[in-house]
């Protein structure tokens, strides 16, 4: 499973409603294979729900999600939701390797420890989630997602609880480890989008649609001082303000 070619994921005329309230209709877009796809948009517009539909966590009533390889999509996905969903009874190491245990395969403890070290949690590897801060818990969830080594990685605001220095380090490490995978990452932060985005889209408007941002030059992770990052984040924020009021 880990050597599957990371697919492009296509959304065709997708519809979502909750209790007869339409969230979006006829939504069409693509998330590019092997790229960092970033999704922005105002709170409540439907970003997390779209990610959950791709992950198979919300059933599809109308429209289609397709992908361009032959493997079942759910088996290719590693999903990091907004809630960390850490198991309170398991140590940090066991939380990170939980997927292996659930699949009844021997955990790769060396790989897990390496990732835990890179996310800065080596000192708490044998502690329990209740002993950690919110930002530390989020890094455990990040480590668990990275440990899975799947071709498709869905991440819903994975760095939202982190201070700006840690956030920058985690962005760099995530880009390094997930290079060549199909990543769909939700963020509210235009700066983050411009640092690590290769294909940036905004979910916005009435009715809700997807808008694609022109590609940004340079390889990711772009340096925070890169003038392109500075300029495009300002443009992106302006666009977000425009789209949220239209
Ligand atoms: N299980 C549910 N039952 C009913 N309504 C829901 C459910 N899940 C989401 N919604 C509604 O669907 C809309 C979209 O929610 P969603 O969480 O997808 O938005 P979002 O863009 O990810 O928001 P945020 O940026 O705040 O996380 C919201 O109005 C929300 O209240």
Automatic annotation (TrEMBL):
Belongs to the ABC transporter superfamily. It comes from Commensalibacter oyaizuii. GO terms for molecular function: ATP binding. It comes from the Bacteria. SUPFAM superfamilies: P-loop containing nucleoside triphosphate hydrolases. It holds the Pfam family ABC_tran. Residues 9-230 form the ABC transporter domain. This is ABC transporter ATP-binding protein. Keywords: ATP-binding, Nucleotide-binding, Transport. PROSITE patterns: ABC_TRANSPORTER_1 (PS00211), ABC_TRANSPORTER_2 (PS50893).
